[in-house]
Design goal:
153 residues; Phosphatidylethanolamine-binding Protein; 6-stranded antiparallel beta sheet; 3-stranded antiparallel beta sheet; globular
């Protein structure tokens, strides 16, 4: 399974447009190579280099298996594109929260993780947290993939 973006390549710098210093919009994502039997996807974006511990930037869930990409600039609403749910990030807001590391804190890595699931819906309301989503997918992950981008201020 593979996940990627046209905005930047694996291991490369995330353009300012997608960060708190730019438009703070989500990059486009696309994925392929998931196993047959996949019924939905979950996407989680987090930064393990944050001073307070891993910081969650985006949670998207209940993505039907018929969808294999998300457009740039997904609306920051709890439900988008006909029922895809977005959770609360660690900024306390729903939807994408772009990279915004402390100034002078070095380069941070932002991991874009996708998980193919054996269920169509997680049974969670829109606005769930990363920990709620991770608990709900236990035992339901068929495959996963990730890539990362970097950013510093």
């Amino acid at each position: 399974m593979e996940i990627k973006s046209n905005a930047f390549k694996n291991g490369q710098n995330i353009p300012k447009k997608y960060t708190c210093e730019g438009e703070d919009i989500s990059p486009d994502l696309s994925w392929s190579g998931f196993p047959s039997g996949t019924k939905s996807f979950v996407i989680i974006v987090d930064d393990p280099d944050a001073p307070i511990g891993t910081f969650n930037h985006w949670v998207v869930y209940d993505i039907p298996s018929s969808i294999t990409s998300l457009p740039e600039g997904l609306e920051k609403k709890s439900e988008v594109l006909g029922g895809i749910k977005q959770g609360k990030n660690d900024f306390g807001k729903v939807g994408w929260g772009g990279p915004c590391p402390p100034r002078g804190h070095g380069t941070h890595r932002y991991f874009f993780k996708i998980k193919a699931l054996s269920v169509e819906k997680l049974g969670l309301p829109a606005g769930a947290t990363k920990s709620q989503v991770l608990k709900a997918i236990e035992g339901k992950v068929l495959a996963e993939a990730e890539f990362y981008g970097t950013y510093s201020r």
